[in-house]
Specification:
There is one protein chain. This protein has 485 residues and is of the alpha+beta class. It is built from 22 helices and 8 strands. A hairpin with a 2-residue loop joins strand 5 and strand 6.
Length: 485
């Protein structure tokens, strides 16, 4: 039986202004620049720059705020806060050498365009050419065609109005697989490696490598060399030579192509600049292309004219004032949110520098102390989630390099003497042990744990596994190698 009831309960919700501040906080410098441009386009009352006229208008407004007989937006709008401050997005905590930078984007030939250009060297009908272009468009950045041909057959009929079948797709795909780079257009790694081996001069080692990839691919990926030798009846020396041929191959043929746009996307704009002046660490918050913002003086003057009329305006004028007032309020909240973002970034960075002072003075990674997000939150009024947003995508430029802010954070590890050290030190020891191990008999995680215990680090095996995975080091079985001359 359905029944309607009323419940009264309290809920805590973030105000739109708070949500806006949170979203701006996690933006990078380049993303913030784009966000500001977008806001200026959408809000006619918001504009860049600060002129003398604006300063005079701000001073006049501040004077009028103290006189109840002068103009007040409250005559027309029910706004809780009618104060109109000086609308600037910058504070005094900026680097003195900031320059506005115009990013020049150069266009270049994409990977797909490079493949399409090679179609001209083959005699293809218009029908086949359309199929080839569609197939090339389905090849990913690694150089693989990972989609099923049956699905491609349906898509090309629906999107390009080209009727074909999987047999014809296979024929055109074989043509594409002859293109440079060798191995492009394959469906999987096994096919890619075989295609590259087939393009080599057929020596004994290449022939053995072809047998390994075609008949023992699963054993090869798991490095079960004993099983491979028995399965294809090959000597250890021949196996060693065949493996040497395979490791020279490119598992991702598409990666050879340098896309200008991809390189542009890797550009890092530091949010902070750290200098040492008179033995003291000084942090500047960079602005680069983040402009000054202000309220458009023309709209403010229009509001003053409407307000001077008091009750002598019609309904249309009041609607105009209400619209302009809403835009001015939105602009004010936006600029306040930017100011809050910059202050928060600077506060968090100053605490990081204070906690890691010895490291920033020396540049020695061994001087990094254990530090987690809670350590920053404990010294501010900010929540851990806010600290995390501050760190995301933010970088600091030091005299010894540019680093992401998360680089300076690490969990503590306790030695037998009770001293807490950064887990970076343990990871460095772990990596050194693996680099120096006997590759024909790699160290298991349990053995690595014992080595660390001998060095005074009482760490569980599961922690060793976690650190090894953080270092992108595979398990011992996959690290096993045979000696290659």
């Amino acid at each position: 039986m359905l029944k309607q009831t009323q419940n009264l309960k309290q809920q805590q919700k973030l105000a739109p202004q708070q949500l806006q501040a949170i979203k701006l906080l996690e933006l990078t410098t380049i993303e913030l620049e784009e966000r500001i441009k977008s806001e200026i386009e959408e809000n006619p009352t918001l504009e860049e720059g600060e002129s003398d006229e604006q300063k005079e208008l701000d001073a006049e407004i501040e004077k009028n705020e103290t006189n109840e007989d002068e103009f007040s937006i409250k005559d027309y709008l029910d706004d809780e806060d009618d104060s109109i401050p000086a609308y600037k997005s910058q504070t005094h905590n900026y680097s003195n050498n900031n320059q506005r930078i115009d990013y020049a984007l150069s266009s270049g030939e994409s990977f797909q365009q490079y493949l399409i250009s090679q179609l001209g060297f083959h005699s293809l009908s218009e029908h086949q050419y359309g199929i080839a272009v569609f197939l090339i468009g389905s090849i990913d950045d690694d150089g693989y065609l990972r989609r099923d041909l049956n699905f491609i057959c349906d898509d090309i009929a629906f999107k390009q109005n080209i009727t074909t079948n999987t047999k014809e797709l296979e024929h055109v795909l074989k043509i594409i697989q002859t293109f440079e780079p060798t191995g492009v257009g394959c469906r999987n790694l096994q096919e890619c490696l075989l295609l590259q081996l087939n393009a080599k001069q057929h020596t004994q080692s290449v022939t053995d490598a072809q047998k390994i990839i075609s008949d023992c691919f699963d054993e090869f990926t798991k490095k079960h060399y004993d099983k491979i030798a028995r399965k294809i009846d090959i000597t250890e020396d021949d196996l060693r030579n065949a493996i040497a041929e395979i490791v020279k191959l490119n598992p991702k043929p598409g990666n050879f192509f340098s896309d200008d746009y991809s390189e542009q996307g890797k550009t890092i704009i530091p949010d902070f600049v750290l200098d040492i002046k008179d033995g003291e660490l000084v942090i500047d918050l960079t602005s680069y292309n983040i402009p000054d913002l202000r309220i458009n003086a023309g709209y403010m003057q229009l509001m003053r004219e409407y307000a001077s009329k008091k009750g002598k305006t019609n309904i249309q004028d009041k609607e105009t004032v209400q619209f302009i007032g809403q835009k001015i309020t939105a602009a004010r909240y936006f600029i306040d949110a930017i100011q809050q973002r910059q202050r928060t970034l600077l506060d968090v960075m100053n605490i990081i520098v204070d906690l890691q002072r010895n490291y920033f003075l020396s540049g020695d990674e061994n001087q990094l102390k254990p530090m987690i997000l809670k350590d920053i939150a404990a010294r501010t009024i900010l929540d851990v989630s806010t600290i995390s947003r501050v760190l995301n995508g933010k970088y600091v430029q030091t005299y010894f390099g540019i680093f992401p802010l998360r680089y300076f954070f690490s969990e503590p590890v306790y030695t037998k003497d009770g001293e807490d050290i950064s887990n970076r030190e343990v990871k460095a020891i772990l990596q050194k042990c693996i680099e120096d191990e006997d590759k024909s008999n790699p160290l298991a995680d349990a053995e690595l744990m014992e080595i660390l215990k001998e060095k005074g680090y009482d760490i569980a095996r599961r922690t060793v596994t976690k650190y090894r995975e953080h270092l992108n080091i595979p398990v011992s079985r996959l690290r096993k190698e045979i000696a290659i001359n």
